[in-house]
Amino acid sequence: MQTSEAIARRKSTRDFDPDKTVADEIVDTIVKAGCQAPIGAGKKDSLHLTVCSSREILDEINQTTAAAMKMEPRDFFYSAPVVIFLSASEKQMAPGIEYANAACVIENMLLAATDAGVDNIYLWGGVQALSKNKELCDKMGIPEGFRPVSAAALGYSKSGEAQPRNISVSIETNYI
After folding, report:
1. How far is CA 10 from CA 68, 114, 155, 165, 166, in A?
2. Does this model's pTM top 0.90?
3. Which residue, 46, 118, 155, 169, is most buried by CB atoms nearer than 10 A?
């Protein structure tokens, strides 16, 4: 698939089929794509990826997130069978750069997933509650001094394959 086709075909999936798993080889390819992302000053040691396919852990994160947000329990991962969490070191070279770095890594993974026929979604909101739960972060193997900042959920949509969109300029743009 050409890059422009993957961009046109990628969509945020919110109806994953929990019974359809993603092959380990495909997950590895997606992780490798994320590792090729541009990172500020090349500081790849300021990031950490945690690949989670444990429904038990994801359910615990869901409960923690719902409690922290004072809302009814729900599945913040849309029943995705795999969620890749990106954590960033608390020591960054510039304020907020961890979010720019995370966006680059996650977008590379989402495009690689789309190229492999795997549906996906970029997650941020629910991950923030997880970052405040040290016990759960320790359970997930997130290194000391790192905190989750975003995630990518992977799986296969119950509603079928995404249809490509027309690529157009849809954000207000000016040229100088």
Report:
1. 31, 6, 13, 9, 12
2. yes
3. 155
